[in-house]
């Protein structure tokens, strides 16, 4: 006859796969229930960016990096939409729980800190991929846009790194924030400027040296330029494959460091456990 384990002795050892999968599915279903707002609305908004900037800056056959302006700007807009929506998704879960008093539903299940973080981040990356696909689908019908991929590995890698980076930042923001205004402030005054000033609509060679240096200190720049390289085979990161490889590895290292910081803060219970 079996006996109950001693008090404090874990029953689930290793990874709680069922719990992790359940959390992931819960988070995915949450944004799919309102997919008009969470997936298709961002696609329409991003397409409006494309229309406005191609009309304003892409007239008279303007070319950038050897392609027409619409084809140049399209990859940057796709990955920008992916990153912003990854942030929006991961920054909602814990914050909504704190405000509504339902955060206990995330803290009480037998999930480790790593499993809780992984489930929320994975769902945010899933939403980013869905938004990226919706934006790309919409852009296929826009005149003058060519989305053929020169290097599919770069599209996949830089898109994944960008979505993961913003998902982690969103989770960190949701831990810190105490109301939706705090979360909106991070999005409006940090995420949006870093996205728009990262070379989405221009190459940084056109900037003054001081502003080029500032752009190269922005991790969003490497995500957008690397993602664009996957489509065009050209980027303003550097002229050699070594520069692209360094950017790819650098983003991975940055995400690992960011994940470690988020993990430690989440494990500490700061602003979550009272």
Automatic annotation (TrEMBL):
Residues that span the membrane, as ranges: 39-57, 64-83, 116-142, 154-177, 189-208, 243-266
Keywords, comma-separated and alphabetical: Cell membrane, Membrane, Transmembrane, Transmembrane helix, Transport
ABC transmembrane type-2 domain sequence ranges: 33-269
Highest taxon above the source species: Bacteria
Organism (species): Qipengyuania gelatinilytica
InterPro entries (UniProt xref): ABC-2_transport_permease (IPR052522), ABC2_TM (IPR013525), ABC2_TM_bact-type (IPR047817), ABC_2_transport (IPR000412)
Membrane topology note: Multi-pass membrane protein
Subcellular location: Cell inner membrane; Membrane
Chief localization: membrane
Protein name: Transport permease protein
Family as reported in the entry's similarity comment: Belongs to the ABC-2 integral membrane protein family.
């Amino acid at each position: 006859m079996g006996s109950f384990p001693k008090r404090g002795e874990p029953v689930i050892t290793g990874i709680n796969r069922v719990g992790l999968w359940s959390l992931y599915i819960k988070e995915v279903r949450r944004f799919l229930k309102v997919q008009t707002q969470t997936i298709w609305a961002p696609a329409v908004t991003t397409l409006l960016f494309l229309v406005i900037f191609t009309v304003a800056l892409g007239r008279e056959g303007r070319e950038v990096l050897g392609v027409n302006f619409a084809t140049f700007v399209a990859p940057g807009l796709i990955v920008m939409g992916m990153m912003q929506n990854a942030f929006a998704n991961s920054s909602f879960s814990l914050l909504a729980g704190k405000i509504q008093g339902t955060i206990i539903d995330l803290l009480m299940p037998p999930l480790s800190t790593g499993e809780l973080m992984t489930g929320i981040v994975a769902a945010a990356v899933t939403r980013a991929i869905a938004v990226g696909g919706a934006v790309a689908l919409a852009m296929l019908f826009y005149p003058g846009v060519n989305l053929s991929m020169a290097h599919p590995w770069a599209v996949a890698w830089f898109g994944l790194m960008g979505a993961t980076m913003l998902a982690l930042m969103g989770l960190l923001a949701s831990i810190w924030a105490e109301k939706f205004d705090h979360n909106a402030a991070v999005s409006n005054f940090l995420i949006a400027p870093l996205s728009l000033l990262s070379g989405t609509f221009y190459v940084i060679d056109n900037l003054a040296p001081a502003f080029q240096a500032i752009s190269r200190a922005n991790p969003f720049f490497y995500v957008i330029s690397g993602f664009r390289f996957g489509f065009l085979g050209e980027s303003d990161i550097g002229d050699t494959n070594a520069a692209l490889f360094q950017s790819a590895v650098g983003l991975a290292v940055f995400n690992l460091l960011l994940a470690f910081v988020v993990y430690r803060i989440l494990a500490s219970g700061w602003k979550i456990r009272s």
